Amino acid sequence: MSSTSYVPSRDTTEGRVYNVTGGDWDAVIGGDPISDERIVLNMGPQHPSTHGVLRLVLELEGETVTDCRVVVGYLHTGIEKNTEYRTWTQGVTFLTRADYLAPFFNESVYCMGVEKLLGIDIPDRARLIRIMLMELNRISSHWVWLATGGMELGALTAMTNGFRARERILDVFEMITGLRMNHAFIRPGGIVQDLPVGAIEKVRDLIKETRTEIDGVDKLLRGQAIWVRRLKDVGWIGVEGCLALGVTGPILRAAGLPWDLRKTEPYLGYDEFDFEVPTDDRGDSWSRFVVKVAEMRESLKIVEQVLDRLEPGPIMVDDPKIGWPAQLALGPDGMGNSLAHVQKIMNTSMESLIHHFKLVTEGFRVPAGQVYSTVESPRGELGAHVVSDGGTRPYRVHFREPSFINLQSTAALSVGGLIADVIASVASIDPVMGGCDR
Amino acid sequence: MTGPDQPAAEIQPVTASAGGTLESSYGVEQHGLFGVKGSGDTSGFGGLVREPLTPKASERPYGGYFDELVDALIAAYPPATTAIRTVVVDRGELTLYIEREHVATMAQVLRDDPSLRFELLSSVSGVDYLGSANRLHAVYHLTSMTYRRRIRLEVSLTVDDPHVPSLTATYPTADWQERETWDMFGIIFDGHPGLTRILMPDDWDGHPQRKDYPLGGIAVQYKGATIPPPDERRAYR
C-alpha cells in the first residue's frame, strides 16, 4: 500500500510518524465494500440460544446469512443400542431419556409398539391415564419452548412465567410417578401403578392454574411490539417445504396443513375426545407461536375430558406373564412398593416368589416381527420401529425423532435472513437435542 | 467372552436354503438361551432352540387397503412385479421386500402417482440380522397424507456390497436419515449428496449398531463382587 493521502507520514528523529486521517475504503479495496467480508461463524455447541448442544456453522455476509450447516450428534448416548441389551420392560427406562422434555411420549410410542407386537389391548384406565399424562406433558414441553424461546428473544418474563407454570405440571408428575422427568412410568401392558390419592383433585387445580398462566403469557406477548416484530415473517416455510423435509408437528400446522396424528390416525382412542387441531396460514415463527399456544388450550380440554371419564379399574393388562404381580403404590421414598406383596412372596408363597423373580429378571418374550407405531409428540410425528426376534429383549428399536428430522429445515428457515433471526427460527423449531441425538 | 461366565447364546450362521429367496429366513437360529451348556445346565434352558425369523409371504387378498395399494403400485410402475420380492402383511402393516435397484425409482412413483401419493417419508433406518446372508436391511416407512396410508419398504444387502440408491432426490428428508443409517450400519446410499457420519464423531471406526459391534462398558465392582458389562452378562434370551 502506498503512502496515500489518508495516511500521510513524515520522518522525525523518533522514527517515522503516521497521521491516520480515516479510510478511503473504495481506494483500498475497490468496488463493493463488503464483497469479500465473508465470515464463517461457529454458533455452538455451547451456546445458550441453540437449545443444548446444537452447532450451527453460519456463513455470513455482513449480517445476512448466506449458508447454514447444522452439526448434531454431541448428545448421542446410544439409547437405541442399549435397549438391545435389556428386557422389553427395561427398554422404557432408556427411551424415556431420549426427548427429555416429552418423556411420556417416548414411553407411550415404544409401549404401543411392543403391545402391537404382543397383540394385546391395555385396560381403559391405563389408556386414559396415558392420554392425560401425554397431554399434560405436551403443555409442559410447550412451556419450555415458550420460556427458552422468550428468553432468547429478550422476553424474560415469558421465561420466568413459563418455567413457573411448567414446574407446577412437573409437581403433578412427581406426585403421580415419583419423578419430575424420565419417569419410566408407562410399561408394555399398561402403567406402573395407579394414581395416588388426591391426584385427580390436584390435576383439576392444575388445569385452572395452567389456564390462568396461558392467558397471562398470551396477553403479555400477543400484542407486545418487540415480540411481534421478532417473530412475524421470520423463518418462513410452506407446506411443500415441510413435506419435502419431513417436517411435521406445529411447524407443519403453522404452515396450514391440519395434520395431527391424534385426528388423522387416532391411537389410544383419541377419536373419543372433543378437541380442535389449531392451524395458521402464515408459516412463520409467529404462526408457530399462535399454534402452540392454542394447542396448550386444546390439551387442557382433553385432560378435562379424561378426568370426567376416568373410572376405577385395572391399570395393567390382565396377563400374569406380562404384568408384574404386585399392586404397587408410591411409597414415601418415591419408589413403588407393596408391603402386602412382599409379605406374600417372602413368607407364604414360594411359587409367587419364583414367578416374580422370573418375570423381573427374565422378562417376557415377544413374538417375532416388526411394527411401526406413531404418536403426535409436541414436536411432530414420533415413530418407533420396533423389531423382535422372539426373545426377551428388543432386537432393534429405532426412534423416528421429530427433533432430528425437523432440524433439517434450519437452513431453509434461516438462509437469506439476518443472523439475529436465526435465533428466532431455531427457537421456533423447538429442537430437543436429547431426542435428536438419542 | 471366555472364562467362568458362559458365552451368551451361540450365534450360528444360517445356510441359505437352495433356491430360496433371501427373505425366506433372516436372523439366526439360537441355541442355549440361558447361556449354559453341557453338564452345568440344570435349568433346562440349554436345550431351547429359537428358529430364525421368517416373515411369511402373504397371499391375496391382503385385506384392508393393501390390495388396492399394491395393484395401484403395479399399475403405475410395471417393473414392480419383479421388483417386489415378497409382500408381507403382519399386524396390520404392509411390508414390501424389494430389489435394491428399484428403491429410488419406486419411491418416486409412490410419491408422484395420483393413486398412491406417499408425500412423506416418515423414517429411514436399518436393521442388522446378523447371521443371515443378506444381513443388512434398509427399512423405509412412507406415509400417504392424502389417503392416510402407510407402507414399509425393506431392502436387504450383504456386508460386502452394502449399496442402495439414495432417496434424497425424491425425499430431501432422507438426507440426515440416510447419513444416520450409514453411520450406524454402514449402508452406503449411492447418490447421496454428502454421506458422512452424523451422530458419531467423524473419525470413528466401525458402525456401532451392527450386531457384531460390541456394546462396550466396563465391569463394575460392588461389595466385592464383579458385575460384567451388560453385553457380557449371562442372560435369558
Essential attributes:
A: 438 residues; alpha+beta; B: 237 residues; 5-stranded mixed sheet; 3-stranded antiparallel sheet; disordered N terminus
Helical/strand content category of chain A: alpha+beta
* Radius of gyration of CA atoms of chain A, rounded to a whole number: 27 Å
Q: How helical, in percent, are the residues of chain A?
A: 40-55%
How many β-strands of chain B, per DSSP?
12
Structural class by sheet pairing and helices of chain B: alpha+beta
Order of strands across the main sheet of chain B: 4-5-8-7-6
Enumerate how many helices of chain B there are, as a single number.
Answer: 4
Q: What would your notes on this structure say?
A:
The complex is a heterodimer of chains A (438) and B (237). Chain A has helices at 25-29, 79-83, 88-95, 103-118, 124-152, 156-177, 199-222, 225-231, 239-245, 250-254, 261-264, 285-309, 339-348, 350-361, 402-406, 410-414, 419-429, 433-437; strands at 9-12, 15-18, 38-43, 55-61, 64-71, 186-187, 190-191, 329-330, 336-337, 369-377, 380-388, 396-400. Chain A has 438 residues and is α+β, with helices and mostly antiparallel strands. A three-stranded antiparallel sheet of chain A has the order 3-4-5. Chain B has 237 residues and is α+β, with helices and mostly antiparallel strands. Helices cover 16% and strands 25% of the residues of chain B. Chain B has four helices and twelve strands. In chain B, the strands form four sheets. In chain B, strands 4-5-8-7-6 form a five-stranded mixed sheet. The longest helix of chain B is centred in the last third of the chain and has 12 residues, at 174-185. Mean pLDDT of chain B is 81; it is low at 1-24. At the A-B interface, helix 2, helix 9, strand 10, strand 11 and strand 12 of A face strand 6, strand 7 and helix 4 of B.
